[in-house]
């Protein structure tokens, strides 16, 4: 498992296995945000077993399932609420890390109007290009 920093206390990673949640805990994370849709691939048939394992490990767990590129205001608000209330550090994941990064950027714009240059730089450093979302991010407001 490789994590990438988005901001202090928030990192992303690609698809996690249930067993990797032990490593998540050992690395010092306190919370996990999952953006995978149950059944989207063979390696993620359902979410309940992940939630159960996270709870056993004492990790806060939030599931905000989204399809790539389909981010509703409710999804963005849920991610923003998670960033505001979950104990840090937080690890967000999806299949590749893109959805988690996209939701993070939208949530940051929604909650504190974070500058686009800051969001784009952090996402780029994490290996995710936000360019296709520029217009929507520019219009995102609290």
TrEMBL record:
Residues 10-108 form the Beta-lactamase hydrolase-like protein phosphatase-like domain. NCBIfam families: TIGR01244 family sulfur transferase. This is TIGR01244 family phosphatase. It comes from Halomonas colorata.
